[in-house]
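Supplementary Methods, section 5.1.

A reviewer requested that the exact input to the structure prediction be made available. We therefore reproduce it here, unchanged from the version used in the analyses.
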Amino acid sequence: MAEASRANQVIAVTMGDPGGIGPEIVVSSLAPPASTERWPGARFVVYGSSRAMHDAAELLGIDPFWWRVERGTSLMASTATHDVVLVDSDGDDNEAALDEGRLPFERRPSKSGGRLSYQWVEDAIAAAKAGDVGAVATAPISKTSWHMAGHRRFPGHTELFASRFNVKRAVMMFEGPRLRVSLATVHVPLMDVRDVLTIGKVYDAIDLGAEGCRRLGVDRPRLGVCGLNPHAGESGLMGDEESRLIEPAIQVALDQGLDVRGPFPADTIFTRAIGGEFDLVVAMYHDQGLIPVKLLDRDRSVNVTVGLPIVRTSPDHGTAFDIAGRGVASAESMASAIDAAWRMLGHRAS
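The structure derived from this sequence is encoded token-by-token as follows.
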């Protein structure tokens, strides 16, 4: 198999915070025979902890199905002969060894959880840059844990991936069975949105959102753009961001040949989208776009980072420390994230 096509079959999966539901949803999603039927021909490299994987498998009543290799081992031979390879960091992790008398991992934000989950994402990025994997599907991390571990520069996965791949434009996009949304701003306090929003950020959410739609199989996406203010500004009575920032971005996108309209009031545009008028809604800030996504398509929508040279997806939910270790977490969004990665690599999910 040629190098490019080999990587096109391999998806890296990061375990997320080991104290959250990440280990459970990773084990549940990748367990055969369902995984081999759903993604025929796919190979998976899991970056995580053997201890957490075994705990999750025992909790779920699943026999271990992965091939373990130590961190730093070459992947090519392993992914050529095994469907699921675990790159285990337990052996070189002295801090994790201190936790051995306290199994499972802490079910709350922790320095150890932040350090490990950050390391696993960095390892997956390195594998993608080396051409060993074609896509990365990330289980949920705790931003608080990352902060506790000293990783304060990046508020989340999106910003870390954009930095490591040195891309100037990257957009967070969500796809669910009934709704697709891209975001002009992401992890920004609500009071700061009006100061951070620019014509360029709105245009990027339109342009890269359209690219994401095409990569997910929508050939000619129709886009609707939210206003920032109530009633989309009401002709300037409730703010001028629509005329000053959003409308110019829409005009640039129209000049580039994109099928885009707006800005429309946020309290009506999502109904129009689920009615079939738009393939993608461009939202101005995090909760404006994410509330309807999680209300309509909870546990089934997927986060996609558009603008990277590789595919990166993740579930639409967080670490769920409150239910971790109980065996009740739904793995559907994690499996949907792998579905999206598989499709964006040019394959067909069964």
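The chain has two domains: 3-167+308-344, 171-292. These observations are discussed further in the main text.
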